[in-house]
Every structure is written in structure tokens, then in C-alpha cells.
Design brief:
Length: 676
């Protein structure tokens, strides 16, 4: 394999599914399956073959019927593993080494996932036993916030940092969808099984995807279907008015109900395996049931009943809060909103409604506690929403590998450390009768590197891997991604690891201190602006004055948010003595001189971490320089250019925050580093 071939495919087109991955596919492959995705596997084998020569040995891909005919592997009867697979669902697979053969058994999606697991080295093949693999989260979904046209304020992809939309151009589906095909295969390699293809802020033009532009949805559904992925549409709650010419969209109105039923029938007539609807209602200006004095269960069930006869589902977002707040009113707390609106409705949602809850109580900040809603709705199907697109985490200009943050979230025992099945991952996954999962906002666009910052691809990869198995370590996932993307060069592995592994904590260190969020420029949300949101209707986030900083969310003297958690969390967050440092200012208003558990005062922490973080950022580019000639040149240049921007921006964060808090507090930096 020539270096050029490797280098070329490692960049634009195929991300982690290029020549380095192809080189792992054994030279001989035997496919024996009549499953629905067998043709896809066959086509993928041919495609990868064209990229690289392949590895020694052979790969045998069998559906259960083929495996049963085989009878035994490595002297062991396959009956037992087949029985286990039968109970594990259509997404499971089993894998084993036998001499120089690798055997994979699976049906449908399971076989496809098993195949990709070999190509990406995700599951080692043991000679002694079958490795059985099934996803932890039944729902593993990506939401696209893509508009078909370029929105005057939000651009084509809302909060997108990777160019225009992968799907649409000039208000319609792109004529050439080759990259969507590549995208679908990339998603299948990481086990994604659902996508939503348009922005949850549904504008008038995009609303028509549901009716007059349904053909375009059907076309995308066809491409995603080939990789085992079902397609969903974000719809406007006001569709009966917008598209149907009705005078109301009241969920209890029979005409409205009829309109949704007929509309859903037409969708399923065209796309029989359509996944369902995603809805943002009564949120940031989107229409919803509140206009008619109805609640969110009424709203969600309206759509659920239209979809139910066809097996469709509603993803109903819990991101509902008052964005017309008065900063003078200290009782309104945005953090409480989702819980206040949704927890009382537990048990009133239909079976095919999934309540989609942002992982934190606010809005994808660099640090938030886990949303108490996740532990408060045991009788409701839930999906936990994460944000791969880096809206508040550096906008794909700064390095910010989010897997460590997501691992922390997924492993957090929100129902209490001693109560079984109470981690976020377990509560999201739900039970057999009430399956849920993980939904995340995609970070991909039309950019040649898919994600703007080429190293932000690692986030997309990690999202899928963690939805598949929340126990995987962030470091291991990073290793898988690096090897598949850049090949086995140890220096590349070392440097990429050094740049990414701690990058979330590094980003946090120079931006948001101790759990305070939203110190960003309103509108675009990039770069520091300590008071940017403080006096706006969108909420108030730090309350800094000359004496102290932070939001009092205690039950005793604050908004009471801390009390929405079960024990021990409620007491732990309530007390300034036990509240973890990294969330201190989320839960408490304290004097600048307050001592953290780390031993530093709050103000000295603000000064030091900004300066230290910035110094560390300045070490990254020289390190990356060492990879010149070892990774594709265009990719190297793009990362170099973005590291320069990260340096500039980190210095701005450092200088603005240090100056702001010196001016507010009048307390000098005891280390004497410069303050402007
Ligand atoms: O984080 C905020 C974004 C909005 C977004 C909203 C949401 C799609 O700033 O752009 O709208 O969240 O999640 O609905």
C-alpha cells in the first residue's frame, strides 16, 4: 500500500473507515448470510478491498442458520452461543478466533456490527471463548440541527461548526448524496441505529419535509436503511396550522388528531420503516400544547397515537424553560424547569413516547450536574441527550474530547450510589418493556474533514462507542479511533493522545470556573463574555459582585434546585462543605475568599486555572508539529491553523476572566501574574 493511498483516504472521504481500517480486514472473507444487511456487508467488503491489501487470515461471517450448519467451532458446539444470541436481539453478535480464522455470527444489524467490529478492532477475537456483544442502549441516535436553507442568524446548521449541511443545499436535498452514504457507513461502524435529519427548530420551509417534500426524506431513508439506520423527522407542533390549513393545533381537537393520523399514514405509505418524530415544543419560541392550556403528555400522546398503528415513536424533548425571564426575579431558576414541567407527568406518556432529556439541567455547558429529571421518571421511556457538536465546548476550534465527560455522566448513579440500576446509563437504557437510550446532536457537516476540526471526529466516534457500551474507557476509545484513522504509527498515537485525552478538563480550566456556565458571547456562544447573559431574558448565571459569586440553588436559602435530587445527592449538593469543587458555583453563592477542598480560595482558583490552562494550551502546537509528514498534509495544516485559534482564544478567556474578577473583587493574584 502506498503512503499516498493511505494518506489520501485517511482524510476527507472516509474518516476512520479508510485505508488503515481496510488494512485490518482479512484478505479472505466468507459471507454466509441471507439476512437483510448481507448485501451491505458484501458491498463494504468490496469497497474496503479497493483501499488496502488486507491482513493475514480469513474472516467468516455467518448468520445463525449458517452457523448451525457448521455445527462446531474450535471443537466447541455452536449451539450454546446461538441460543444466547437468539435471546440478545437482532443487534447482537458473537465473535471468536479459531486458528487464523475469525468467526462472526449475527443476524441483520448484528452481523454488520460484528463485521465492523473486526475492521475497527473493537472486539478482540479470543481463541478460547466466544465474545458476545450487544448494545447497552437500545436507542443510539443522532439528531441533526440542519436547515435546508441558510438561516439568517443560525446559518445552515444550527450550532454547526463543520460547514453547511451534509444533506441539503439551496433549500432541497443535494443531488449528489455520496457523502451521505459514507456518513451512514461511518455511523454504522459505531453502532448508531437512528438519525433525525432536520433541525428541532422547525422553520416553515423545513416543515414541508413532512408532506410535500416527503420524497426527500424517503431518499435519505433509503441510504440510511442500507446501514441499519432508521430516519426520523423533527416536526412542528403547529403543523396542522402550518401545513394543514387548520385553525388550531390543540391536541384535544378531533380535527387536529385526524390531521396527524392521515399525515402519518401518508408518511408510512412512502417510508414503511420510518422511525418517528422529534419534537421541541413550548421551548425557545417553538409552538406547543401550552398555547391551548394542555400539558406535554397531551402534546406527546397526540403524535404518539398517530404513529402507533405504524410502529413509530415520538421523541419529545424536555428542554422546556422560560426564556423571557426577568433578571431581577431571583426565584425563577432555569435549572428547575425541565423537572418542574416533566416529573409530575411521569406515567402519563404513551408507550411509544420517549422523553428526551438533556444530560444536565441547563444546556450542554462544559460542566453541569446530571439532570435530576433522569432519576425522576421511572414510568417513562427516556433518552438522555448529549451534544457532540461543540456549541459551548470550543465550537470545533478548540480541542475538547468529550468522552471523559460523557463517561462521567453515564456512570453517575443519579438514583443514589447504593440503589441498583440507577446510573444514568442504566436509567436511559430502561427495561425490556420500556427501552430508551442516548440521543446526541451531531457535529458533522459538509466540511471536507466532516467535523471542521479533524480531531473532533473522535467525539463522534466516542459517542457511538459509549452508547454501545458505557463502560468502555475514554482512553481505549481514543486508541481505537486513532489507530483506525491514522494507522499504527506510535508517535501519532502518543501525540494525539496527549492533545485529546485531557482536553475537556483543559478547556474547562480556562473557560467556565467551578460550574458557572454561560460566560459566553450571546448569540454565537463563542469566546468569553462574563456578563453576556447576566441581564438578559435567557437566565442569569453567576451573580458575581464585589463580595462573591455563584448561584444559590440550595433549599435553605436559594431556588431549591438541590432538593430535586434523591439522597445522598440532595444533602451533598445542599451543603457548601460537601458540594464538589467543580460544581460549587452551580449550587452556591460564596465569597471569593471561600476555601475549596483543593485548599485554594475561589478567587485564586479562578486566577490560577486560567493562567495554567493557557500555558498548557501553548504547548500543544509544538507537539503537533512533530507529526508533520506523518499524517496527511492537509489535515496537519488544518489542525495547526485551529491550534493557533485555540491559543488566541484561550488567552482572551484568561485575560478577560482574570481582569473581570480582579475588578469585581479587588483581591490581587497572590502569584503576581499579570492582570490587565
Ligand atoms: O443549546 C441551545 C442552542 C439552540 C438549540 C437549543 C435546543 C436547536 O443554543 O440553538 O436549538 O439549545 O437544544 O433546542
Amino acid at each position: 500500500m502506498s503512503t499516498d493511498r493511505a494518506a489520501g483516504t485517511a482524510t476527507g472521504d472516509l474518516a476512520w473507515l479508510g485505508a488503515h481500517a481496510a488494512a485490518r480486514l482479512p484478505r479472505t472473507v466468507h459471507l454466509r448470510s441471507s439476512g437483510p444487511l448481507a448485501e451491505t456487508v458484501e458491498a463494504e467488503i468490496a469497497r474496503l478491498r479497493a483501499l488496502a491489501d488486507g491482513a493475514d487470515g480469513s474472516l467468516h461471517l455467518w448468520d445463525p442458520a449458517a452457523a448451525a450448519q457448521e455445527g462446531s467451532v474450535a471443537g466447541d458446539p455452536v449451539a450454546e452461543v446461538l441460543e444466547q444470541l437468539a435471546g440478545a436481539g437482532e443487534e447482537a453478535f458473537a465473535l471468536r478466533a479459531d486458528g487464523d480464522r475469525i468467526i462472526v455470527i449475527g443476524t441483520g444489524r448484528g452481523l454488520l456490527y460484528g463485521f465492523y467490529a473486526v475492521v475497527l478492532g473493537q472486539v478482540p477475537a479470543s481463541p478460547d471463548r466466544w465474545s458476545r456483544n450487544a448494545p447497552a442502549q437500545p436507542i443510539r441516535m443522532l439528531d441533526h440541527w440542519d436547515n435546508m436553507t441558510v438561516h439568517p442568524v443560525m446559518g445552515q446548521v444550527e450550532r454547526g461548526y463543520a460547514g453547511g449541511s451534509l444533506f441539503y443545499e439551496h433549500g432541497e436535498l443535494r443531488p449528489d448524496l455520496t457523502r451521505v452514504e459514507h456518513y451512514a457507513r461511518l455511523l454504522a461502524t459505531i453502532g448508531i441505529n437512528r438519525v433525525a435529519i432536520n433541525n428541532v427548530n422547525v422553520h416553515a420551509h423545513e416543515a414541508t419535509l413532512l408532506t410535500t417534500r416527503l420524497d426527500q426524506v424517503a431518499r435519505l431513508a433509503e441510504i440510511f436503511r442500507a446501514q441499519g439506520i432508521t430516519v426520523h423527522l423533527a416536526v412542528s407542533f403547529a403543523s396542522p396550522i402550518l401545513l394543514g390549513g387548520l385553525e388550531t393545533s390543540d391536541p384535544l381537537d378531533p380535527g387536529v388528531q385526524r390531521w396527524w393520523r392521515t399525515t402519518a399514514e401518508a408518511v408510512y405509505a412512502r417510508i414503511p420503516d420510518f422511525g418517528g418524530f422529534v419534537v421541541k415544543a413550548d421551548s425557545e419560541g417553538q409552538p406547543g400544547p401550552f398555547a391551548y392550556g394542555r400539558d406535554h403528555a397531551d402534546g406527546a400522546n397526540l403524535l404518539a397515537r398517530a404513529l402507533a398503528p405504524h410502529g413509530g415513536e415520538v421523541f419529545w424533548r424536555a428542554f422546556v424553560y422560560d426564556h423571557h425571564q426577568d433578571w431581577r426575579d431571583r426565584r425563577t431558576d432555569r435549572a428547575r424547569a425541565a423537572h418542574d414541567h416533566f416529573a409530575p407527568l411521569d406515567g402519563s406518556f404513551d408507550e411509544n413516547v420517549i422523553v428526551q432529556v438533556k444530560h444536565g439541567p441547563m444546556d450542554f455547558q462544559v460542566r453541569e450536574p446530571v439532570s435530576p429529571v433522569i432519576g425522576a421518571m421511572p414510568r417513562t421511556r427516556l433518552a438522555v441527550e448529549l451534544q457532540v457538536t461543540q456549541e459551548y465546548t470550543g465550537q470545533q476550534k478548540h480541542l475538547c474530547y468529550l468522552a471523559p465527560a460523557w463517561s462521567e455522566i453515564l456512570r453517575f448513579p443519579v438514583g443514589g450510589p447504593d440503589s441498583p440500576g440507577s446510573t444514568v446509563a442504566e436509567l436511559a437504557a430502561g427495561t425490556a418493556g420500556r427501552p430508551g437510550g442516548v440521543v446526541a446532536v451531531s457535529n458533522v457537516g459538509a466540511d471536507e474533514f466532516w467535523t471542521g476540526h479533524p480531531l473532533a471526529q473522535a467525539n463522534l466516534f466516542a459517542l457511538g462507542r459509549l452508547a454501545w457500551d458505557g463502560q468502555l474507557s475514554a482512553q481505549r476509545i481514543l486508541g481505537e479511533w486513532t489507530a483506525a484513522t491514522f494507522g499504527p504509527d506510535p508517535l501519532v498515537g502518543e501525540v494525539v493522545h496527549e492533545l485529546l485525552a485531557q482536553s475537556w478538563l483543559l478547556y474547562e480550566s480556562y473557560t467556565a470556573p467551578l460550574g458557572v456556565g454561560f460566560m459566553v458571547r450571546p448569540g454565537h456562544h463563542y469566546g468569553p463574555d462574563v456578563d453576556g447573559y447576566e441581564y438578559t431574558p435567557w437566565g442569569t448565571y453567576h451573580f458575581a459582585d464585589r463580595d462573591g459569586i455563584g448561584v444559590d440553588r440550595t433549599v435553605a436559602t436559594g431556588t431549591g434546585f438541590a432538593g430535586l435530587y434523591p439522597e445522598p445527592w440532595a444533602s451533598l449538593y445542599e451543603s457548601v462543605r460537601t458540594c464538589p469543587d467543580e460544581l460549587l458555583l452551580f449550587f452556591h453563592h460564596v465569597p471569593y475568599t471561600h476555601r475549596l477542598h483543593s485548599g485554594k480560595s475561589v478567587i485564586q482558583h479562578i486566577y490560577d486555572s486560567r493562567a495554567d490552562g493557557c500555558e498548557r494550551v501553548l504547548t500543544l502546537r509544538p507537539r503537533w508539529q512533530q507529526l508533520e509528514g506523518r499524517v496527511p498534509a492537509d489535515l496537519h495544516a488544518r489542525v495547526t491553523q485551529l491550534l493557533r485559534e485555540q491559543e488566541r482564544s484561550a488567552q482572551e478567556w484568561r485575560d478577560q476572566l482574570r481582569s473581570y474578577f480582579f475588578r469585581a473583587s479587588g483581591i490581587p493574584d497572590e502569584n503576581g501574574r499579570p492582570i490587565h
